[in-house]
Amino acid sequence: MPESVSGLLELDDIQSGVLRPRPAPYVATYLLLRIDDRKAGRELMRRLSNVVASAAHRESPAADTWVSASLTFQGLKALGLPQESLDSFAWEFQQGMAARARHLGDTGDSSPEHWEAPLGTPDVHVVITALSPDAHGLEAALERAREAIQALPGIALIWRQDCYALPGPREHFGFRDGMSHPAIEGSGIPGTNPAQRPCKAGEFVLGYPDELGGTLTPQPEALGRNGTYVAFRKLYQRVALFRRYVKENSHSPDDEELLAAKMMGRWRSGAPLALSPSSDNPALGDDPLRNNAFLYGDDPTGFKTPLESHIRRVNPRDSNVAGIVGLHRMIRRGTVYGPPLAEGVLEDDGVDRGLIFAFVGAHPGRQFEFVQTEWVNSGVFIGAGNAKDPIAGSNEGDGDFTIPRRPIPRRLHGLPRFVVTRGGEYAFMPGLRALRWLADLQT
Prior knowledge:
- The model is unreliable at about 1-5 (pLDDT under 50).
- The strands form four sheets. Strands 4-5-3-6 form a four-stranded antiparallel beta sheet.
- The chain has two domains: about 5-235 and about 425-440, no CATH class; about 235-425, no CATH class.
- It has helices spanning about 15-20, 40-50, 75-80, 85, 90-95, 100-105, 135-150, 220-225, 240-250, 255-265, 280-285, 310-315, 365-375, 430-440; strands spanning about 5, 10, 25-35, 65-70, 125-130, 155-165, 230-235, 330-335, 355-360, 400-405, 410-415, 420-430.
- It is built from 14 helices and twelve strands.
- α2 (about 40-50) runs antiparallel to α14.
- The protein has about 450 residues and is of the alpha+beta class.
C-alpha cells in the first residue's frame, strides 16, 4: 500500500520535486530531451521511474538531493498517449507556453521569436531537473539521470542549464530569495509562514480535493493521480538597468536601498518591510523562522509594504484584494544561473544571467496564469489600474509605481522591463506509478 500521512497524500508515489522546498544553498541542472522513437521514450519512462525521488524520503540524509522528470504535451504525444487521455489535460498545458505568450505578457523582447532555442518549440518533450545542496550530490544525481538516457538512440539531449546559489544566498538583483513555501495538508512538510493555514492538497497534487472541494485528475486516473503541472521559465535579469533606475530615482545610497526594498517588499537581506519598515534588519532576514512569518492586515494602505510591491502582488496573503487569494497560491522555486555582475557596475557586460523559475500547481489557469496576468501585469485587483509589478512586470518604459507616503505619495514613472523571458514551457510531472504506466503503453 502507498505510504501516506494522515491517510491523505501517497507520498511514495509523488515526486519529491513537487512538495519539497528548494535546499539552501543549492546547485541544480536542467536537461531537455527530445523523443525521436516511441519505444525508446517508453523505456526512458521505465528507467526514470527508478531514478526520480519520492516525497516519502523527507527524513533521509539525501532528502534534499533529487531528480525529477516532467513531460510536455508534445512529449506525451511522442509517447503515443491516446487522444482521449490527451484531451483530459489542462488546456493551457495542451497549448504550450509559447502559444500563451501574449496573454502572459511575453511581448517585445520577451516574445517567443526571441526565445533561446529550443525553448518553446515542439522539440521539447522531457524536462529533467537535478537539485542538491552541493556539487558532489548534484553530480551523483546527474549520473543517475545520464544512466537512464544512455544507450537509448531514440532520445536526444537538446539543452542544458546549470544553476547555483549566489553568496547570500541572493539572486542577481541582490535580494535574498527562496523564503516562501506554502504548507500543504498531509505533506508533513511545514510551510514558512505559521500565520497562514495549510493549503488543500488538491491545489498542488492532482487527484485530491482542492480549495473548492473539487478533484481534478487527467485520465486515466493511473496516469493523472499524484501528478502536477509545472511552468518552467528562463528569465534574464537586466541587472545594470535595475541598478541605474534605482540610483537615478534616489537622492542618496540609503534612499537607493529603501526604494529597492519598496519595489520588492523586502530589504535585500530578506527582512520584510512588514516587520522592519524603516530600516534593514539582516538578523531578521537570516532567520528562517521569522523572515516569512507575517501578514498585511495591519497595513491595508501599504504604508509599510506598498500594495504594488512585488512580493505583495504575487502573494497578497490576507490583503483585501479582488478575488480569493487561496485559489491562486502556488509553489515557486527560483534557481540562479550566470555569474554575478560586479558590485557597483552600472553598464551591462553582455553576460547571460538570471533565474530558472518553476511554478508548481494543479491548476495552471487559476494559479500561474492568473497571477501572471491579473497580479503581475495588472493593478486592477488592488485599485492601481494598469500599473504592473515594478520588478517582474512587462513594463516597456512607461510603467508607474506608487509608494504610499504621508502627506504625498511617492510616484515613480518610466519603469522599464527589468526581467526578460528567454523561454518557457508547461510540463506535467507524473507520479512514479504513472511513469511506469507510460512505460507500459501499448498504443
